[in-house]
Amino acid sequence: MSEPSQISLNNALSPMMEEFLYFNDYAMTMLLMIWLSVMATLLAISTTKLYDVSPNDANHLEFMWTLLPIMVLMFIALPSMRTLYLLEDQNPPHLTIKTLGHQWYWSYEYSDYENVSFDSYMTKEQDLTNGAPRLLEVDNRMAVPMKSTVRLLVSAEDVLHSWTLPTLGIKTDAVPGRLNQLIFTTMRPGVFYGQCSEICGTNHSFMPITTESMPMKQFENWITTLLN
Q1: Residue 42 and residue 223: Cα distance in Å, rounded?
Q2: Three-state secondary structure of 2-32
Q3: What pTM was computed for the model?
Q4: What is the rounded average pLDDT for all residues in the chain?
């Protein structure tokens, strides 16, 4: 969960989020190098007379200032294409969860099990336990088994919503009459928070998403309690 003074991105929960963080750091390094090069050039021009303003042709210079931007774009484009490829190249899912956006709560259905479905409402402030985050905690969390591939089918019943979990690096719109698919894997246990990222009406700010990643044995016990 983000902290008030945090300047970096959230720690990665999934392998794809780790790829996003690596690419973000790589792209920021490239931008820093470009900025330093431009500032050094401007400083050199403004403090020295090591330049020529004569109207002579400078073919080598024109070639270099055309080649260098192309190289910079290639250095950024190739890693991004690799990340996009990994985003689509996913393993077959072990578990399928259907989530439906409503005004203003989420409902979840574990379609691999019979009669396992529930609604997830935001916990009111007066009902919060000690340490629970305000406007982010819910009464029923979506639970997923750790280190298992999960497929999430997202849709909406009324208006546009958006199912977003920053620590997983996933976000997809919930569109009425349409199914969107997310595939993810959690790598460690814990409780992770997100919110609806599409303005969906008056109580848009009160539509949190809470996901709990747990070991497989604990997940099986959790499913068993729901079935009973």
Answers
A1: 64
A2: CCCCCCCCCCCCCHHHHHHHHHHHHHHHHHH
A3: 0.78
A4: 87
